[in-house]
Amino acid sequence: MRHLEALLDFYLASGVDASLGEDVVDWFQLSEVQAKARQQIATPQAAAQPVAPGQGSSQQVRQMPPQHQSPSQPGSAPAAPVVGAGPRSPTDHGAIPDQAVISMAREQASSTGSLADLRACLEAFDGCNLKRTAKSLVFADGNPDARVMFIGEAPGRDEDLQGKPFVGRSGQLLDRMLKAIGLDRSQVYIANTVPWRPPGNRTPTPQETEICRPFIQRQIELVNPDVVVFLGAASAKTLLGVQDGIRKMRGRWMTYPVAGRQVAALATYHPAYLLRSPLEKRLSWRDFLSVKSKLSELG
After folding, report:
1. Element (H or E) spanning 107, and its range?
2. Fold type of domain 99-298
3. Which of the residues 114, 170, 196, 285 has the least number of beta carbons within 10 Å of its own beta carbon?
4. DSSP per position, 143-208
């Protein structure tokens, strides 16, 4: 049983989100049943088929069995729905990430007047195909009135299950780092540039990121923090428009435009990276101390 559970966990982490049917099918036995069914269909027809003039009685014209099965015939598997996609129409094949979809995202995001409106807008938005494979919308966590906002790239498996950002191992490390400078989740606001988990925790595509960018931009405007901290290079590149790597960016104060003012912005290592490279924690510690000093400086 443990091996089966481990296999299912592997499939889930790899992005497998559909099956061919709910019932187990013995395809070998089914092949024998189908062969007998074809024989029973063909034999009576062959016996009843009239012999053409000039042909001997030993030459019988046999009718070929049907080549296509209807959905109700044995062996045909029902179409597997995508988990989390909701009801789909027969012509619904997913959104095409083109400029029209991006423009629609910008228009809908800009029309929201509160974080509650923005969340409702995202829950109704069907322009990003990641929504079809994710279990949950991972909108945000923490205090909407916080002075500092932390932004990551995209949710992982634990976040997708709970519907909150940074709740797995990397989130636990982030909590410890916040505690070290006298903060907790009741004093900060946490979100991601992409609010849906990509299948198998893969990196979001540039098109997926571009579609979701207007929503995180509006989210920052509605929170209106004094300090923005980008966790990892991906979120910093998406929102600052820079191309530098995280090693070059981290620890360097920049600015991000929010509601007509320039907000202090800092990029640092993503907690998931620190779990893989613990020696870099010393540099992130310096960054978090810098955040603490900046908040004190700004009053």
Report:
1. helix 99-110
2. Uracil-DNA Glycosylase, subunit E (3.40.470)
3. 114
4. -TT-SEEEEES---HHHHHHTSSS-SHHHHHHHHHHHHTT--TTSEEEEESS-SPPGGGPPPPHHH
Q: 């620890």: which residue's tokens?
A: 251
Work out the angle at residue 239's Cα, subtended by the Cα atoms of residues 243 and 284, and round it to the nearest 5 degrees.
75
Cβ within 8 Å of residue 269, ≥6 positions away: 231, 232, 246, 250, 277, 280, 283, 284, 287
Q: Give 167's Cβ-side CA count (13 Å radius).
A: 16
Structure tokens at 71: 């959905």
Cα 214 to Cα 84: distance, rounded to the nearest angstrom: 23
Give 229's strand partners: 150, 266
Burial 209-239 (b: 16+ CB within 10 A, else e): bbbbbbbbbbbbbbbebbbbbbbbbbbbbbb
Can you tell me the distance from the alpha carbon of 217 to that of 220, in angstroms, rounded to the nearest whole number? 5
Q: CB neighbours of 282 closer than 8 A, spacing ≥ 6? A: none
The dihedral formed by the CA atoms of 167, 173, 179 and 183, expressed in degrees to the nearest 10 = -50
Q: How many CB atoms lie within 10 A of CB 175?
A: 16
Q: Rounded to two decimals, what is the model's pTM?
A: 0.70
191-239 pLDDT per residue, tens: 999 999 999 999 999 999 999 999 999 999 999 999 999 999 999 999 9
| Exposure of 61 in the CB half-sphere (CA atoms within 13 A) | 7
Nearest-CA neighbor of 14 among 177, 188, 202, 276?
Answer: 202
pLDDT tens per residue, range 124-136: 999 999 999 999 9
Give the β-pairing of 141-142 and 227-231.
unpaired
